Amino acid sequence: MASLSQGLHVQAKVVQALIMRELVTRFGRDNIGFLWIIVEPLLFAGLVGIVWTIAGGHNSGSISVIAFVATGYIPLTFLRHAFGRSSKIFQSNSALLYHRQVKVLDFIFVRVSIEAIGAMAAYIFAGIVLYFFEIVTAPENVGAIILGWCVYVFFVISVATVLAPLSEMSEVVEKLVPISVYVAIPFSGVFNLAAWLSPPMRDVLMWSPLVSGMELMRYGAFGDLVTPYYDLPKALGVSLACLLLGLTLCRRVRRTMTVS
Q1: What does the DSSP assignment read for the chain?
Q2: Which of 37, 55, 90, 212 is a good FRET partner for 143, with 20 to 30 A between their CA atoms?
Q3: Which residue range forms the structural domain that includes residue 149?
């Protein structure tokens, strides 16, 4: 038990160091630095919400267009960044593998964690601003938001563990990684509620952990204004299957990597 505790402590230190390195490398020390990771999803969600409003979007019941778009587009931005930054992640960080404590999975976990923290901070900030301007009310169920976000993040990190090694194995896969984001949009529940769909289509989408996560987050934010549909056993099963496949691929790629 002592050795396990010591190992976890060392690994936590490794992850902390990698996070600091990643933030400085990506954002530097000038201007607002790492705060860009919060500002960027806010800008995207805000601009999309404004465009939807100007284009004649209408409120769904008592839910404003801007609030509906923000609750969907900020998680989508996190997904897009996490998938995109998983490409060639091992190759760009291979020099760090000289250190015995650094594992290839640390690179994936760090990048996805940074994106997740930034997106969640943007989500909270957007909620505070919308509440201040009386566009939304206070969250109805914070626990549902947290659970939905955990489902969403767990699936994204599971898929990232698949995309990262595949991008190292094939340049074709590397080019297809950005496209995977657009393929995921119809199965993400970003721009619609499951309640709006026909039962057969809804049953199909229940196999997407993204939909279950999104439905829970929106139910937590809007309460009885929405009727949530989610399937946690399917969401967990699909995510675990992707994670198992990703771990197998990561192990295979690590054996063939040359540290440079």
Answers
A1: -HHHHHHHHHHHHHHHHHHHHHHHHHH-SSTTGGGHHHHHHHHHHHHHHHHHHHTT---BTTB-HHHHHHHHHHHHHHHHHHHHTTTTHHHHTGGGGGSTT--HHHHHHHHHHHHHHHHHHHHHHHHHHHHHTTSS-S-S-HHHHHHHHHHHHHHHHHHHHHHHHHHHH-HHHHHHHHHHHHHHGGGTTSSS-GGGS-HHHHHHHTT-HHHHHHHHHHHHHHGGGS-----HHHHHHHHHHHHHHHHHHHHHHHHH----
A2: 37
A3: 8-256
Whether 3 is covered by a domain: the verdict is no
Look at the chain and report how many structural domains it folds into: 1
Q: Model pTM greater than 0.85?
A: yes
